[in-house]
Amino acid sequence: MAEAQIAPQGEAKFSLHNLVKRDPRAGLAEDVRRGLASQPKRFLPKYFYDQLGSQLFEAICLLPEYYLTRAENEILDLYADEIAASVDGRITLVEMGSGSASKTRLIIEAILRKQSELLFVPVDISASALDSSSRILLQSYPQLSIEAYAADYFAGLAELGKKQRTRTLALFLGLDVVRGVPPTLHAALATAMGAAAAVVVIVAFPAAGANGHALPAGLSVAAVALATLAAIIASQAVISGAYSMTKQAIQLGFLPRMRVSYTSAREAGQIYMPTVNALLLVGVIALVLAFASSSRLAGAYGIAVTGTMVVTAVLAVVVINRHWRWPLVWALALIAPFLAVDLVFLGANLMKVLDGGYVPVVIAGVIVVVMWTWAKGRALLTAKDRLAEMPLAELIAQLRRKPLPVNPGTAVYLTAHPDQAPVALLHSLKHFKSLHEQNVILTVRTAEMPRILDEDRVQMEVIDPAFRRVTLTFGYMEQPDVPQALGLCRKLGWTFDIMSTSFLISRRSLKLAAKSGMPVWQSRLFIFLARNAASATDYFRIPAGRVVEIGTQVNL
User: Fold this and answer.
1) Which domains does the chain possess?
2) 428-439 pLDDT tens trace
3) pLDDT in tens, 298-352
4) 510: which strand partners?
5) Which of 52, 86, 141, 292 is deepest in the core (most CB within 10 A)?
6) Which residues, 6 or more positions from 163, have their beta carbon under 8 angstroms from its beta carbon?
């Protein structure tokens, strides 16, 4: 028979039913015999979970090496609301092996957010632990009613089956449930509460060993060191990839110019980009603060990796078709099996979009918007420049008819359109009423290949004794160095002297126009990007002392 201990007046929401025999030694010999004969061998916990034993176990749970409780807390912290929402109607919460109920608070709070009252039925072998934990819970949650049972699982479930209950959520926490007899417990649970029971088993246990460690103690330090090295290697790969991809996007005109520092005199690809590094730092800190644990990042990681796999497969088709000159059908036939597998993985991970998977999607979307805005804005500026420019041949013809005073030295005008007179040249003639002895219309292009040989880098055309047109070509993985490249013009018959040369560059001041070719938000974004872009002198490695900037205002 159960011994019921009803709480005093004023605490009528708490009752404790003690099903443990008064004399713990009664039946000891029989229990020992059965425990030694069973596989695996076991000893019933009722013989050591008295008040002192319960306190000892709680102390063990707080030890750093006993990570099971922390893991269970983390699981419930992540999924408590989902567990509560999965059970329809009003819920009665039954916990097998509640102990101090420290973990149970998370699921109790989730259920109380769903319903105003809750009946909590803890079952544990320790009556003293049930008494103390129940009173603490009642102080924190006045809307709680507690019906506690001091018993082993089978006796507790048998007693629970004598009462009719509402929809019941049965919670199993801990290692002993899995290493015990869960099918038998589930059968007893079904008998006690019928189809109204929803069973949740949450277990955190080591992969090997009975001491609570996944690895032997002697290997823990080595495992931490190996994990640290792996994290360093992975982070370095992310940083290097971000630098390389950003630099190539700048070369192709999809991102504004950024400062690039070369850290090696022998390796041209060894670079450092402060802006990209700062953005990575802010992003990492934001992710750590937002997600708090690596397990919460699983959804984001899955979509990021599988999405990269799909994009890589698609780009492989483009490379094979356009660069290897394979027919499109052959390229698709080669990559289709890999792409099909990648799409399966991506589809499976799309289920995690709302569970953190939105992070890489949002980041990718922001980058696409920035690249799209920069490319579109540059196209609009190019169109406006063409309206203000005049054909270079026409300008040279006018200067022949009406010669201007000539200044000694060489002037280099940077322009993206070598057939048009650069804006800087027109403003120079307008304000200074003079012309340099030698004038170079310089255009810098980026090839669709990583590197260009020196013999293919420079093209020069003499169009007038005072004018020549020079085109410099760089690979998308190269850092443009204009002075060094102009030195190659000596092989073409023109000697470049940096000390007698001035680089005249037009600096635009962008203003928001009443009517723009882009939405207002996109125009503002482009203006912000343009104002924060690195200067052309730094990007092309032009000595600052040889640069003359001529300002122009452009309404965008």
Assistant:
1) 3-202 (3.40.50.150), 221-371 (no CATH), 389-555 (no CATH)
2) 888 888 899 999
3) 888 889 999 999 999 999 999 999 989 999 999 999 999 999 999 999 998 888 8
4) 554
5) 141
6) none
